[in-house]
Amino acid sequence: MIGIDWGTSSFRAYRLAAGGAILDRVESAGGILTIPLGGFPAALQAAIGPWLAQGEALVLLCGMVGSRQGWVEAPYLPCPAGPAEIAAALTPIPHPDARLLLVPGLTSRDAAGVPDVMRGEETKLVGLLAELGPAPALLCLPGTHSKWARLEGGRITRFTTQMTGELRAVLLEHSILGRLVEPGPGSDAAFLRGVRRARQGGGLLHQVFGTRALGLLGELAAAETDDYLSGLLIGHEVRAVVEDGAPAGPVHLAGAETLCRLYALAFEEFGLTHRRHDPDIAARGLAMIAETLQ
Amino acid sequence: MIGIDWGTSSFRAYRLAAGGAILDRVESAGGILTIPLGGFPAALQAAIGPWLAQGEALVLLCGMVGSRQGWVEAPYLPCPAGPAEIAAALTPIPHPDARLLLVPGLTSRDAAGVPDVMRGEETKLVGLLAELGPAPALLCLPGTHSKWARLEGGRITRFTTQMTGELRAVLLEHSILGRLVEPGPGSDAAFLRGVRRARQGGGLLHQVFGTRALGLLGELAAAETDDYLSGLLIGHEVRAVVEDGAPAGPVHLAGAETLCRLYALAFEEFGLTHRRHDPDIAARGLAMIAETLQ
Questions:
Q1: Residue range of the domain that includes A254
Q2: Residue A282: inside a domain, yes or no?
Q3: Which stretch is the leader sequence (chains A, B) (predicted)?
Q4: Are A11 and A44 in contact (CB under 8 A)?
Q5: In a domain, A225, yes or no
Q6: I need a labelling partner for B148 at 20 to 30 A (CA). Which of A226, A249, A264, B117 fits?
Q7: B206 interface with A at CB cutoff 8 Å
Q8: What confidence tens digit (pLDDT) does each residue in B131-156 have?
Q9: Are the CB atoms for B66 and B91 separated by under 8 Å?
């Protein structure tokens, strides 16, 4: 089968053996924002035409390709959901040579009924489910919009999105905090200083301004401002998740190396253990959904 | 005497009688960012030359004119501080015809020693001190960077800055949240929905993303997104201040009408009473510092 993770700014296709082993892969920067109106069939053919010609007939797609801005909109599926519920809610896309199926995004609601959404990450979570089994687990997928999910009984029971990465970017690029920043080599000490500040308690709207106060008073180097701010924001993210329910075991962490290293530092500061996972879990998740389907 | 509040983007000069009554005023958009290098003496002369010619000889200036980007840098004074401490820490600016004195900004440190800074607002707080006397009081000056101050014994004992207004602006203009926003007439119901969400508890980094989730699922109108986001952010600001110590009496509120109305709505939702004050308190504060001086 073929598994595709087609996001806003990237395209990843995997040719998968039974069981989910990766036989071949195609990666490009051809995210859905680069696709012209009506251009999805041609873009898909250009990327995986050779595999289809060699006889592959099942294609599972996940990510923003299933959003309103994508190829076809796949409705959101409410949590709790596992591979079986997801496989039962796939959206077909007509295609002359293959069976194309879109993986739905997920929604989760908190105790007050306020919703959250994900699209693409559900497939990575399913990939981790395959590894972790039915015991309760807390998962963290750091990124522009970090996702934290609680798994239990082989299903994703609920999740939250944390806007940490995007907030850091807009504050550095567009707010007064950016004026004091100079590029630096990266300082774990300044990052941990920010994490500790968040862990002490207090509101983010005040503490984020402290980045500027420290700089104005010469108590934070310009080249360490970004590190401190990152620590402060990731610290607030971790604090909120822990207050919502501390995990019994390790936090399961999967994502880009640089970001996972920082999250691991923050976890240590909060007294949390963690376990790193392969970043290719989306491929495993796609294979697992397909298995449930067949 | 003459009192001047010279900020980043605005200039306000008052000709004041003994006791602080405003005899005349000059206001313009000539904030310090509009002043060319070395242009402060000429800008001042253009604005208040006629008053100087009529015999005024004492000029007190506050605001960003005393910052590193201003005319002369006035050092920060640590809290607790009242009119006497501030009057004893004025920075003179040489001038051929008048005695020019810069009001210092203030710093405050929390229990962990992390600093905060203000420049310009200290003068408004002194103006409120004149009205409120020595009893403990909690003051709120809403704005791009809202200031909350605790007064006691006729001095400003400590304060915090909340980056609420600027965060709302950068999120609407530069983050993914802005994509779902359409202009609207303003909805108090949507604003209060955001305030209540914040009051329930939970982290801001997650709840701010909820603005998008609600929009994607059709549970928040595009024309009400800004109202909801404002309520959420102001709600988090008020929650953090209340958690840091709820006031025994009303919150004393001074600032622009539109913003004060929203803050008053949020206070009601938190069960706080409030009292509105004249937005011209900077003039009274400048007069009070000058009285202490003479």
A1: 164-276
A2: no
A3: none
A4: no
A5: yes
A6: A226
A7: yes
A8: 898 999 999 999 999 999 999 999 99
A9: yes
